[in-house]
Design brief:
Number of strands: 0
Number of helices: 4
Shape: elongated
Distance between the termini: 53 Å
Structural class: mainly alpha
Order of helices and strands: HHHH
Strand content: under 5%
Number of domains: 1
Length: 64
């Protein structure tokens, strides 16, 4: 049994009154995972800005 299977099985056995609390915790984990990707996105922005900020790019997007 994988860890994911064990978690799903544990959720199935969890009393209903705890499901809202578990859902809140899972949402907080999703947010934490999303925030870990932000530094990479910000670093990429600086590198890509070299191409984005060229006059040729401005001309290409002017009519949109």
């Amino acid at each position: 049994m994988t860890t994911k299977d064990a978690i799903i099985h544990a959720v199935d056995d969890l009393p209903l009154e705890y499901l809202d609390e578990l859902a809140d915790y899972l949402q907080s984990l999703k947010l934490r995972a999303a925030h870990q990707n932000i530094p990479t996105a910000l670093a990429s922005e600086k590198v890509l800005a070299k191409d984005w900020l060229r006059p040729e790019e401005d001309d290409a997007w002017r009519d949109l």
